[in-house]
Structures are given as C-alpha cells and as structure tokens.
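re the bet — no i am not wrong, look at it urself. input seq straight from the record:
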Amino acid sequence: MTPSSRRLSVAFTMIELLISIFLILVITAVAITSIVQMLTMTRRLQALQTMDASAKTLYEKLAGELAAMHPCAAVWLTSDPADSSVELVFMRCKEAPLDHIDSLREWGRAGATEMGYTDLVWSRWYWKWDPVKVTGTVYAASSRTARWTRVLGNQARDYWKIPGGSKLGNSYFNAFILIPQPVQETGTATSPNSPKDLLNTNAWQSAPATATAPAIQPIEKTDYGDYEDLLRNSRPLMFRCSALKLELVSRDGTSRVADGDTALAWAAEGSVVDGSDKPGLAPADAKRVLDARPSLVRLRFTLSDEKTGASRSYSFSCPTSGIPSY
C-alpha cells in the first residue's frame, strides 16, 4: 500500500468517527429531553394529585362539620381586607336533633341554664393571605368538649363566685369542667358581639366588652374561653391556597360572600333547638332569625405548586344541618 492510500484510509475513518459521535449526541439529547419532559410531567401529575387530595380532605372535613352544625348556636362570617383573611365560626354537635341539649334547668338565677356533658364543640375555619410569600393558608380548629379548670384557695381573691350567684365552699382547692355553650344572642360579628367576645365568656370570672366597660379577662391564667381554645388548637390544613371565596346562603336565599378583599362582618343569631319561635320575639322577628340561618356553604379556591407551576381551581357546596322540626 502506498503512503497516499494510507492517508486516504485514515481520513475516511475519522469522518466515520465524527458522524458516529454526532449521531450519539443527537440520540442522547433526544433521550435526555424525553426523560426531562417525562419527569416534568410526572412531577406535575403528582402535584395535581396532591392538590386533589388536599381539596378532598378539606371538603370532607368541612362538609362533615357543616352537616352537624348546631341549629341553636350563632354563626359568624367575617372578611377583613386589612388582614387579608376570612373567618367562619360555628358550633357543631351530634347529628341527632334530640341529642343537642342534654338538660335544661335553673342554675342560680332566673333564665340561667346548665348543660350536661355533651360533645358540643365550636369550629373555626380561617384563611389568611400572606402578601410577602404570595401564598394563602387555610387553618381549621375545634374547641375541646371539656376543659379542666383548677382554682387555688390560698390566694386573696374571690375565686368562688360563679356567674349566676352560686358559690363553692372548699377553701383550699377546686377543680371543675368548662364545656362549650351555645350562643343564641348576637346580631353582629364585631365587638362586643364577635366570637372573641362572646365565646370567651365561659372562661372563669370573665365578661365580654360593652359600650361602657372593657372586657374582663379570666383571673386564673390557666383558664381561658372557647375562642382562645380555638386559637390554641388551630392547625394548618391546606397551603398555597389563593382566590378563596366563602359564600353562605341563608334559608331565605340571601347570599353573603367573604373573600378577604371586601369587608364583611355578619352573624346569624341562634334559634331554639326545635325550630319554634325564639322566646321573647314577635312572630315576624322569629321568622327573620330562622330565615337568616345558613342552609348552604359554597367554597371556591385555587391551589398551586411552586416547583412545577401547576395550579387547579376547585368549587364545591356543603349543606348545613338545617333547622330540625319534630
């Protein structure tokens, strides 16, 4: 073989090598692109599945609590633009109407009632938008069915006076149970008829704020009311939630929407358990109170995933327990 033929053979081999490398690079690039697209799609589908699961969990929890809404207790719905928040507070209980009230009898003064140990609890749903993190979080909380309160007798204060006039005789130590009480009288969601004012009144020796007097805080530091209990028990339920709108539809068809952008402070007055006229009200006023009770709750919101950019909007309706008649 001549030198010139050897040079031609070497040149031809290098061309083949370059073509092979090029084809390998092309195939590798196509494979990597396909894998990246597949991983991106997988992460997106997983994010959507996670959002669906979160929305389902929220729906099932909210629907279950609304289905057991107490027909006797007040309901609050607030929307605060200054805080970019939405709050819904109501009482829930056993589903059987006859189990709502265990016993009613005079206790220390006319018109006072004593309620036996029940499973009544207050529920609080709260949505807060964070403009810094550009995200919203939904919180849910339930008050406890009973709270132990201990009062020591070796302190120079009258711990024994119970709202209603009764007194306990133990001069050293007392322990008793606080249970949530249905709140019937309210007409607004702002002070002094807000949940914070009214639900904390079952704290030991406390009183709500009035037009002429500030709120009286519990003397015993370990004692607190139902609203404070809700705040302590609040837990995040859903993250990265935006564009939330909570709508209450009353029995008369009136609709009220809280979205955190428009100011709203509304409350439904409590009614009597059996759905009859509220004591002390004219028939027209009693009908107004009953018609204002919420019968349907609509909730709309959008969930998003920061890593994948996926988002999905949800909307569902939950009926309340309504007013029982028997």
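see?? The helical segments are 3-67, 195-198, 226-232, 283-291. told u. also The longest strand covers residues 294-304. so pay up
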